[in-house]
Amino acid sequence: xxxxxxxxxxxxxxxxxxxxxxxxxxxxxxxxxxxxxxxxxxxxxxxxxxxxxxxxxxxxxxxxxxxxxxxxxxxxxxxxxxxxxxxxxxxxxxxxxxxxxxxxxxxxxxxxxxxxxxxxxxxxxxxxxxxxxxxxxxxxxxxxxxxxxxxxxxxxxxxxx
Amino acid sequence: xxxxxxxxxxxxxxxxxxxxxxxxxxxxxxxxxxxxxxxxxxxxxxxxxxxxxxxxxxxxxxxxxxxxxxxxxxxxxxxxxxxxxxxxxxxxxxxxxxxxxxxxxxxxxxxxxxxxxxxxxxxxxxxxxxxxxxxxxxxxxxxxxxxxxxxxxxxxxxxxxxxxxxxxxxxxxxxxxxxxxxxxxxxxxxxxxxxxxxxxxxxxxxxxxxxxxxxxxxxxxxxxxxxxxxxxxxxxxxxxxxxxxxxxxxxxxxxxxxxxxxxxxxxxxxxxxxxxxxxxxxxxxxxxxxxxxxxxxxxxxxxxxxxxxxxxxxxxxxxxxxxxxxxxxxxxxxxxxxxxxxxxxxxxxxxxxxxxxxxxxxxxxxxxxxxxxxxxxxxxxxxxxxxxxxx
Lengths: 161, 391
Ligand SMILES: NC(=O)c1ccc[n+]([C@@H]2O[C@H](COP(=O)([O-])OP(=O)(O)OC[C@H]3O[C@@H](n4cnc5c(N)ncnc54)[C@H](O)[C@@H]3O)[C@@H](O)[C@H]2O)c1
Ligand SMILES: [Zn+2]
Ligand SMILES: [Zn+2]
Fold this sequence. Notes:
The complex is a heterodimer.
Chain A: H1 3-15, H2 18-27, E1 45-49, H3 63-66, E2 72-78, E3 85-91, H4 99-103, H5 108-124, H6 143-154
Antiparallel strand pairs in A: 1-3, 2-3
Chain B: E1 2-8, E2 11-16, E3 28-36, H1 39-45, E4 56-57, E5 61-69, E6 81-84, E7 87-88, H2 94-97, H3 111-118, E8 124-125, E9 142-145, H4 148-151, E10 152-154, H5 161-164, H6 170-180, E11 188-192, H7 196-207, E12 212-217, H8 220-230, E13 233-236, H9 242-249, E14 257-260, H10 272-281, H11 290-298, E15 304-307, H12 320-325, E16 329-332, H13 337-349, E17 361-363, H14 368-377, E18 385-387
Parallel strand pairs in B: 11-12, 11-14, 12-13, 14-15, 15-16, 17-18
Antiparallel strand pairs in B: 1-2, 1-4, 3-5, 3-9, 3-18, 5-6, 6-10, 7-8
Protein name (chain B): Threonine dehydrogenase
Family (chain B): Belongs to the zinc-containing alcohol dehydrogenase family.
Keywords (chain B): Metal-binding, Oxidoreductase, Zinc
């Protein structure tokens, strides 16, 4: 790699989101849709978990979902093709989410997505997988690193869009 | 403890980092015996997978001894000699149950990153960026292994550390390619790339009954390894026209199965290379699909093309017309090692899979930056630099 090309590569890498942005630009029809519609129009968020629908007691949901109390509507149905059970949840009161809201961590839809993922892990594995604290060396502060840290904070909740 | 870390694009460091601890009940801590560099690390080094942070511990191909076990672990005890698959799979979700372990729903605590990139998140991998979970890598004295009953495998007594090491990543990746591309007895199989992954894909194809296996690369020492240690034929793409040679080698048909084990930084002798390189550097395409294009072009009608090489985003000048008109099956995967490693270890113990020749340069963790430089430059015949954290 020549130095000039190397510099371009490292600049791009520091920008962090270049690959995601580029792929999204190719495949995502988002600009053609109204703003703030990263989620399905109905507001339902759904995960598929192993097991039969009868194994999920909607009156005794896993803690991450139970914490929402009666703010939540919940539906359970069998997934086609023996793929397990579809666990669907929807907030009764839904503010419109935005990318900014998600990145600043105040998007209830994203919180619900994260809760569904944790509920799925509790049902399937019995505990929520932890990655931190993971051993690492010196986190030299760079703009790319900070952006990535922000991403990884929201990554359990929803996509980075 | 000492660890080899990513510091920035093309910058590898050796740093002191905290030791890992058990965080989930199914974890074990492994004291790393050997930990290898992999072609995938080169993509991280070059910044082509831009989800690394300064200080991230590298390494995902490793073996060692169990140093600590979590309360829910049933298969392993302190002191066991184990090899660990590079992907993190829970064993419980639908994908794991289907044997598609690298697609595990519960192995990547940061699924949002790959969901944004690909529509769905995939599993996690040690030392492979925050997009694949942010798991600390194995170029260190100790590593934490979650879901250890699924991911760690006891090494049979007769298999050396140097051989078992490659049952972690290179060999199961090769097995994933040959098996998922449905190599059958009588097939002619062509493999692009004679690194650890390509060599193991060739061996897997032979074990699965392929009649003829041809490996393509340009490095003499790697092609020599293929002939000596794998027992496959070779082609040097700088000396011959690869699709033309393959066509005549196969009675005018083309190979039944074409396995690409090169990845997003492929090299090419023609002007197309500069085009791809510049577009990739300018971020107009994220990957250079040179070998995939050639594999698609060379493959027989109705044949199977498999990308084992790692790609991250979008590519340019993709020969979709050949895929469609020749009725090809195009597939790819990160490795589903959990399902292949028991068989690979068994074959290793019977000398039917030999891998120690891949460890051309064994060194201490302190030599991490030098090891990565030699591996990247393929200096002194380096096929894989291997670190021995114990010194
Ligand atoms: N799918 C998986 O789970 C998985 C696992 C491990 C590695 N990988 C990927 O597999 C690829 C190979 O890994 P490796 O460790 O063997 O890497 P490596 O860098 O050691 O080997 C790659 C080889 O490809 C050769 N090559 C480059 N351009 C070529 C071309 N146009 N035609 C033919 N050969 C060409 C190089 O000379 C080199 O020998 C990488 O992309 C790596 O990321 C995938
Ligand atoms: Zn690898
Ligand atoms: Zn799983």
